[in-house]
Fold this protein.
Amino acid sequence: MEKKPEQKAFSITMGSGFQIRFPNGYTVSVQFGPGNYCDNYGVNSYPNFTENVRKAGEDGSNTAETAILDPDWKFVRYPFDAPDVVQPPRMTPMEVLTLMNHVALLPPKKSVEG
């Protein structure tokens, strides 16, 4: 199996959010573009996809969709308030910060590939 290139600590995801990869191998994805579970959920991104995504990004959002990914890019269930939820909708900035702090402190998990 071909090994994937190492992901950088910060990455932009198609102009609709960002991802942060922590030294322990876990990644938190924060998305707030059209169609994401946030204030911009109902924003129509077509027919002018690039322009509408750009405008939604500039307008911003008070909430964001988040996800936790392990070193093998598998979704991780949320550890607090919603243990059966993989992607809780509409998190506030303080909830995103709490999530990032929690994920940053998880013990390292070796990737199946590495």
Summary: The longest helix spans residues 93-104. The mean pLDDT is 83. The CA atoms of residues 45 and 52 lie 5 Å apart.
